[in-house]
Design a protein that fits this description.
rod-shaped; 81% helix
């Protein structure tokens, strides 16, 4: 395709009036001066063509030819751009599909499963260690609570025993207290 564009540019360059004038081939290849025609039949035919308006000048031919080449080149460039866009779209979609396929293969691979299992075990180990530590603290607190409950029970029974003993002692002291009875025989007098 690039070669085709190069050939069109080359032929367009060769057939331009300026190149033919520069090379001196303008008189040999084209009809530039109708006065140099010596054949009457050719002269008559040229006159008829000019009268009918079907004969165009050399500059018009070169202009049409140049426009045709430009149109062809533009069309080829447009096709090239379209092919490039399609190629990019195809490459992008195929690379996207390929990337998805690679991800699926990786996710389903043994390495990925081992990686995930390792990470999960690490996270679970941390949680398990915290759980075990909390369980040990709770068991220790339960043990301390039972010890405290036993102490409370012992202290409660000691309190009841001390209370009972205090009652007995208080009664004994009350029965021994005769101070209210002492001195009831005394009289007060003014002497």
């Amino acid at each position: 395709m690039l070669m085709m564009i190069g050939m069109l540019v080359f032929f367009n360059f060769i057939s331009t009036p300026s190149l033919l004038k520069y090379l001196g081939l303008e008189q040999a290849l084209t009809l530039t001066d109708p006065k140099v025609i010596s054949d009457p039949m050719t002269s008559h035919m040229i006159g008829e063509l000019v009268r009918q308006g079907t004969l165009v000048s050399l500059d018009d031919v070169w202009s049409y030819q140049s426009s045709l080449y430009q149109t062809i080149i533009t069309f080829l460039i447009a096709i090239n751009g379209l092919l490039a866009a399609l190629a990019i779209f195809y490459i992008k979609s195929s690379s996207n599909d390929k990337a998805i396929e690679i991800v699926h293969e990786f996710v389903e691979s043994k390495e990925f499963k081992e990686f995930v299992n390792k990470k999960v075990k690490q996270k679970l180990k941390i949680a398990r260690d915290e759980y075990d530590e909390s369980t040990q603290k709770l068991e220790l607190m339960i043990g301390e609570g039972e010890g405290i409950r036993e102490k409370v029970s012992v202290l409660s029974s000691e309190y009841e025993e001390l209370n009972r003993q205090m009652t007995v002692i208080a009664k004994k002291i009350a029965s021994m207290d005769q101070a209210d009875m002492d001195g009831h025989d005394f009289f007060l007098s003014k002497d």
